[in-house]
Amino acid sequence: MEKPQLCLVVLVVLAACWPAVSPLPNGAPLSSCGSMAPKHLGATPQTGPPPYSIMIKNYTDKVEVTVMGTSYTGILLEARYPNQTDAIGSWAQPPTNTKKIACFNKMDSAITHSNTHMKTNVTYTWISPCSKNDTIIFLATVAKSKAVYWVKLASDPVRVTCSGSAINLHGFAALVVLIISAVAVL
Predict the structure, then answer these.
(1) Which contacts of 15-20 are long-range, i.e. CB under 8 A and separated by 24 or more positions?
(2) How far apart are CA 46 and CA 21, in angstroms?
(3) For residue 48, which phi and psi values (nearest 5 degrees)?
(4) How confident is the chain (186 residues) per 10-residue block, as mean pLDDT?
(5) Of 30, 31, 75, 81, which is most buried by a Cβ count within 10 Å?
(6) Eight-class DSSP state of 185
(7) What is the distance between the alpha carbons of residues 130 and 128, in angstroms, rounded to a whole number?
(8) Which domains does the chain have, with CATH numbers?
(9) Burial level of 74, CB count in 10 A (0-12/13-18/19+)?
(10) How far is residue 108 from each of residues 4, 102, 120, measured CA to CA in Å?
(11) Dihedrals phi, psi of 97, to nearest 5 degrees
């Protein structure tokens, strides 16, 4: 085979394989939501101690979630009830270089990267569904690079309260009782 023909054959083979080996620079696919495992061909999750931790602040109906540690390029972040597989709640507008996605057909239920720019100690804001006061955990898959990543890093359990809703409801109930009492006195 002549050299130009060989180059053409090599280019055709590379072009045919390109989608299968290219990284996912625009974020995690929806098919990763359940397992939270990236679709990085030829790479396996790290098993050693991760250089990342998930820090939580503000245990009300809005929770600030910070992924602390060394710089990373990719992320998939979800809130879940412990021992459950579906994401819960929604996320506020995420910082630059990240975006919201609809895991499990739930709008804005997860955060992922929107490019492979480095991210360091980024804080995201999660909004509770306020359907009940309950304990939740935050799970993150964090990719330092395409080949180096940790799957389902977990935060400490967090007790989320919907105090704003409860206060409003109790305030309304107190107002009704006060009105009824006033009417009864008249």
Answers:
(1) none
(2) 19
(3) -80, 180
(4) 52 40 69 90 90 88 94 96 93 95 95 95 92 85 94 93 43 43 52
(5) 75
(6) H
(7) 5
(8) 23-184 (2.60.40.4060)
(9) buried
(10) 50, 5, 22
(11) 75, 10
